[in-house]
Amino acid sequence: MTPAAQDVDHVTVALGDRSYEIVIGAGVLADDAFWRGLPSARHALIVTNDTVGPIYAAQLRQRLESTYADVVVVSLPDGESFKDWSTLNRIFDALLGHGCDRKTVLFALGGGVVGDMTGFAAACYMRGVPFVQVPTTLLSQVDSSVGGKTAINHPLGKNMIGAFYQPARVLCDLDTLASLPDRELSAGLAEVIKYGPIADAGLMDWLEEHMEGLRRRETPLLRQVIRRSCEIKAQVVGADEREGGLRAILNFGHTFGHAIEAGLGFGVWLHGEAVAAGMVMAAELSERLGLSPVGLRQRLSDLIARAGLPVRGPRLGAAEYLRHMRVDKKAEGGDIRFVLIEGLGHAVLRSAPDALVAECIDAHCA
Amino acid sequence: MTPAAQDVDHVTVALGDRSYEIVIGAGVLADDAFWRGLPSARHALIVTNDTVGPIYAAQLRQRLESTYADVVVVSLPDGESFKDWSTLNRIFDALLGHGCDRKTVLFALGGGVVGDMTGFAAACYMRGVPFVQVPTTLLSQVDSSVGGKTAINHPLGKNMIGAFYQPARVLCDLDTLASLPDRELSAGLAEVIKYGPIADAGLMDWLEEHMEGLRRRETPLLRQVIRRSCEIKAQVVGADEREGGLRAILNFGHTFGHAIEAGLGFGVWLHGEAVAAGMVMAAELSERLGLSPVGLRQRLSDLIARAGLPVRGPRLGAAEYLRHMRVDKKAEGGDIRFVLIEGLGHAVLRSAPDALVAECIDAHCA
């Protein structure tokens, strides 16, 4: 069960005094070695959800009991639709109810929703306590647990209330992916696929070669693709932590995707599913603007389909898409800004005429 | 109306790339000169309350309309009891309802509650937008508008959910103090008096000489004492922005004071009133521990009384005080940490036996 050192990858997110390590390997949750040197405190609070908690919370508690005298578990309802203030407040209730002081360390055990909410709670509780990411989904291991974006949703927009707040460590146990439903594995692959067009043409080739193996959850392939994803994300975040510019490229497909999520109601489509269809629309827009060579959209669309993901968005009407896209955080003065592909492996941030955007939406709705 | 340059004081809060100016003078709200060079954006949101807004919001809007195409005003109910999530959410509703993007600048026009909530909203909206403090009470001009502590209350504790988030500028118009009720002027004097024991013996002498003039609101005296208070606060915050140690001295009297506010219910006593009675208790504890010479508590108590402030706390029972003090942010592992005076002008952070603390509480309850 215990992984040898050579079976574990380490990726560093270099952010000066906020730098931290991402640890990637099978059996991480079973081995005390990876849980040493965390911030010391009397209290630790494990935040998890009703799906993941019953499987892994006891194991995590075991790892923490040698460091923390008091380990509390709070379990939230599972799903994007609960990523709101009232659910967040359950974390504050637990912290204050247990007399947790401002050295208390929070542990986010779950997927992107748990990670975003735990990170935001850590950013705000007594104006900031340390937290550790323990992502248990592919999506959170390759994307959301890294980089310090934390948030909750507002009825008028996704992730509108949050903070840039870095974790003290990210611990990815590949074994937790065994319990992940196929649909969520695919949703995670959407964020993996994203890194190809925006940053790494070679990754795109590699994914085309190994997509079936990834969907069969072959551990060496998963480990390799999680490490590469984290390397790309760490590099981008290290260069632009607070999204002054470059970091926005990580939102490829997300502007269209957010419109899908908001239009259907948060939680109807998984985030990764919405991003998948959104990437096809964004690639179409890149081609129509003459930025990327004709054919990239088709190649991307084929790969997305092989990942078990939707290549077409829901038919909400282009006007409804545009309405939601205008409240995107990248918008400035009502002007929607898209992440577009300028040749495979290179992304740019651009605005585009509404009529052209509407054509791209209409061309890729089911 | 327009103040000449020599009638305005400037104090710098030196925090590297988060440094900013505090401007102190009469007529600041009437003069465009002080409102140039603010962060540019399409939208500005003035957050105020139902007491201050009707008097000053139109004037502030005039100052901002040359810089911002769209100036929105949101008015919150007045008082500490509204410093909660649901009131904060009205700021987010206004921002999203008006399509405010992530360059939007927030302006806090009011006292400490408006400043704390506006700052926290700015820290969280789209993970951070700029904000400007326009404090209109003595308490906010000498204390809460400076230093970047922002927060809302939780039913189980005051200021438990918040962020360290610095404003882009602080603009104190002395003329706004003319509309301040006497009770609130006195509450502001509590935070002024605080700076003497913890940092400046000379200020204590000066206050003993000028207390009546301050209560008559003589502008030169107010200007002088606001500048000196801001200088002390700027120095402490510049040395310890995130309260790793030194900054905690600014909470002299606040641990007892928070217990009074929480015990009576937020808003029954003004924050400054609770701090006033709390300082007497903390000075008593300093004397009983042999830290400060006998007589300081009496001298401080006399000055507090002359400021029109309570020198005795409400009779909640020492156990009730202690219970609330244990959820203070300075507490560690259930151990309450007090800011105590070690000779006039010098503060230290210490714990103390419960029995002794209880004696100090009982000795100074009405």
Strand fraction of chain A equals 15-25%
Q: What string, H for helix and E for strand, traces the elements of chain A in order? A: EEEHEHEHEHEEEHHHHHHHEEH
Largest sheet of chain A: 7 strands, mixed
CATH topology title of the largest domain in chain A: Dehydroquinate synthase-like, alpha domain
Seen as an oligomer or otherwise, the chain set is homodimer
Ranges of chain A with pLDDT <50 over ≥5 residues? Answer: none
Q: Report the count of strand segments of chain A.
A: 11
Approximate helicity band of chain A: 40-55%
N- and C-termini, Cα separation of chain A: 46 Å
Q: Please state how the strands of the largest beta sheet of chain A are arranged side by side.
A: 1-2-9-6-5-3-4
The most extensive interface, with participating residues per chain, is:
A-B, 37 and 37 residues
What's the CATH superfamily of the largest domain in chain A, by name?
Dehydroquinate synthase-like - alpha domain
C-alpha Rg of chain A, in Å?
A: 20 Å
Shape of chain A: globular
Please tell me the overall pLDDT of chain A.
Answer: 95
In CATH, the architecture of the largest domain in chain A is Up-down Bundle
CATH class of the largest domain in chain A: Mainly Alpha
Q: Figure out the total of helices of chain A.
A: 12
What is the total number of structural domains of chain A?
2
Structural class of chain A: alpha/beta
